[in-house]
Amino acid sequence: IFEAIKGSRGGSGKSIASAKAIRSNAAQGRIDLAVEGMRQLIMYGHPEVVALELVLLGLLKAGRLKDASELIFEAIKGRWVGIFPLDKATQVLAGMSMKCSREDEYAREFVEGLSAMTDFGNASDAPARDYYRRLAVGQVLEFLEEARVALERSRTQPAHTLARQGLCVTDISCGAGKKAGEVQCSFSGSANGDGTARGIQNGDAVAITPMSMAGDDGAVIEGEIAMVLSGQIIVRVGDKDEIDRLCAESARGQRWRIDKMANRVAYIRQLAALRKVVAAAADPASEGRKHGGGGGKRDLKAPASEIVAAIVSTSP
Q: Rounded to an integer, what is the distance from CA 243 to the centroid of its chain?
């Protein structure tokens, strides 16, 4: 489906949305306007990597995997092939929201399309692209399946049962954290037995939802545990609008719950390892590079070129 498509775009004389306007709309959450502008730019403009990256990340954050796949397909029809640096392509995959699990049937074509748009540098194009595509598809599908199971669990099992299992903390009130991008979540001992967040640890990926809407992925606010204290959890949310929503609704009496979700840390580390292997295939000399340029130590984190060549060129 993502093979090069013949034919010209035509209509280059028409007025198109500016890349700056698209980036602004995407950054401010006006994702539908950003998508419409992106479609115009694809039809009549020139490749604009940053704008496309922001729009894709906005769609993934909203759980709109189908729309993201369709936009990539349109970009490939517009001959936007091999334009994404490998780092940016990997960042887009890392931005996959747990909400995308409701449209996981589009995951394969999304990754395949993104691979077609990725620039693999000096690597032998076909083997590197195929290796990246195959492993990224597996990693994305595994992450989305974990997310689907976790959301289903929070939707169907009693909160007190999940709390005893260390998978949930209930009756939470949220306030602004001391650091930017953080939320301070306070809870009572009566709701969670001993006043501790049993089973919740630093680095865990979590979903924050209203007590009355558990498991509703449309209401989910995703975060990462920064610190666990007695009667209090600090969660990194990052999105200012979502932090404002948590604080404002808590001030009006809304209570929330935190559920452990898919292992995002492992997912991101897997993607980083995949990027490193493929990047080394593109630049085998990186194995012998030294820190700081001159007489520093050899970079021991860079995989050996012989191993990379064997891995990337291996058929499935």
A: 18
